[in-house]
Amino acid sequence: MSSLDKFQSIIILCSAVLGLIIGQFSWFSRNAQHLIVPFLMLMLTIVFLNVPLKDMKEAFKNSRFSSLSLGINFIWTPIFAWVLGLIFLREHPDLWVGFLMLLVTPCTDWYLVFTQMAGGKVTLATALLPWHLIIQLLMLPIYLLLFAGKLVPLNLHILLQSVLLVLVIPFVLALLLKKYFSTIKGAAWFSNNFLPKTGPFQLIFLCLAIMAMFSSQGKAIISNPKITLLLIPPLIIFYLSNLFLSLKVCKLAKIEQTAAIGFSFSTLARNSPIALAIAVTAFPDRPTIALALVIGPLIELPMMAVFVTFFRKIFSTADQKN
User: What is the CATH number of the domain that holds 64?
Assistant: First the structure.
């Protein structure tokens, strides 16, 4: 795990704070909003470059593992997210929408890091990754129409335009770059030399986008700081509930321990960058929605670190008993 990975949550928090400081200067607050989408598009292009689409068929060599994980992510979690929002965020529809957008987009990379740290089977978890990406690209607009459309005004044309701009274009660009470099330099060079160098830039562009967003909306955020604390209870309940559910499902389905770790993290970690990109473009006049997607990782990453320790402890204890 690289230094950037270890301190990602701190780096993101520092980016948000720096954005708030810069946003107090009128020139930055007026112009920063024009930088958010370009930075997110660059970041997502790098994310998509690292998605192993060729491994999609591998997921269904273990159909029980894959179908259960995808079912939790794309059927159970959206319904559960709506219920949690109804209980905790009904008086704050913008936060509710941001909360929903965060939870309906499962992670496409970060959960593998935690799976490895906890001693889980990374190869099996990796096979889910391209399916997480493809399904959420297709389902996110539908989730927004079904759920967010009941809470805030939602323009279908702008929504589809935002999906095209910040998801489809980076996705196609990543495919073209992958094809170009693999043809010119070879697939081995692309995987071993090019991709490892792109890793730091993913976090850099994400932080620049966060900085620009907080800079453009800094005054609105500072005027009501307590609202972000409302996200903590429902997020913690989500993570603990999905952890319990994933472990129960693995036990009933007789999924072995190392695979169960990857299974659990695949149902816990969320893909805030993709959701943030859509929020910024589809709801440009509602900064609190995007704010929820920036706050989310600051809660998620410490929770994931706790779960790594939890898995190490319970499975090492089980091994000792055996």
Answer: 1.20.1530.20
